[in-house]
Amino acid sequence: MSEKFTGSFTQQEPIPEDAIEAALAVLRHGRLHRYNVAEGEAGETALLEQEFAAQTGAKYCLAVASGGYALATSLRAVGVKPGDKVLTNAFTLAPVPGSIASVGAEPVFVEVTESLTIDLDDLAAKADMAKVLMLSHMRGHLCDMDRLMEICDAAGITVIEDCAHTMGAAWNGVLSGRHGAVGCYSCQTYKHVNSGEGGLLVTDDEEIAARAIMMSGSYMLYGRHLAAPGPEVFERVKYETPNISGRMDNLRAAILRPQLRDLGTQAERWNGRYRAVEEGLRGTPGLTVVERPAQEVYVGSSIQFLLLDWSEEAVQEVVRRCGARGVELKWFGTPEPVAFTSRYDSWRYAETPRLPQSDRILAGIIDMRVPLTFSLEDCAQIARIIRAEVSAVYQSA
């Protein structure tokens, strides 16, 4: 009898007790709006920003309604206008090109490598096509950030980092989100901290920070921000910066502050589970493990592997067979978007020529969440099931 996995790939751990207590305190006093504070009170959202700025080593931080809102706000804050082109990864999730389209700009997609990171040779070739790169650290994979910044600095390209999958990760000792002009993070349920929805952005640029705060809906209450530039910076931008309200509230901030303090411990737990799956998959015929560079510190909340140059039918058979045994896999090669697996040719608001290298790699990417609700034994069992089904389909091809 073939073993079957019975766990849930979408069930998160409970919110920590200290976060629940902090949330209850906010509910009891009723001051949920970030600018509704008692005299002498900083407010949960302002404290969250101050703490996350310190945690990342950034000068300024803004908490907002979602990671996607952080991305679009960053684009506006660095000066992207309607009709501008913005470089971004061909392998990413829909909110990234969506944020570019939301400001009236046009995504220009850069090829992906077998490491699932942006192709730096293709980026260098396209460097004269745009003045901004929205870099997606898709599914937690960091490219060679030293070379990327060399390319972008030489071409005068401003880098916005989408760190939705890399909160707590680093390249060569520098935290994800701290290489470019702005780092954007998601606090959505399936990310590294969970407030249901929510986002954070960090920057060392005082004018970017001031514009982002004004756009988030501060009105003239920017003085209540703790991780913000001085009032003289706001004086320079306040009359020309639109209010596009997207504030985080004190309830979500209260839930997040204890989780962020525990991020390092949680990252280690994720990585133990990631490595258990990875080791179980190594050496599987026809399956390529995505190797992690030595310079990268990652947070393995999901895992990807490649079935390169397999037929569409064979890949679908692997997904079907694993699903029948309780292992939920997502395939980025599917012709029609399913759940979160859309790809660059699904986003028809952007006219994009075919990207043959990316087409080949996307057709082979298999993705799987690794929730902290899984034990190490669960992860070993999942790897055995995937290994068995990939091997069976590969041998019958």
Automatic annotation (TrEMBL):
GO molecular function: transaminase activity
Pfam families found in the cross-reference section: DegT_DnrJ_EryC1 (PF01041)
Keywords, ordered alphabetically: Aminotransferase, Pyridoxal phosphate, Transferase
TM annotation in the entry: none
Similarity remark: Belongs to the DegT/DnrJ/EryC1 family.
Name of the molecule in the record: Aminotransferase class I/II-fold pyridoxal phosphate-dependent enzyme
Species name: Leisingera daeponensis
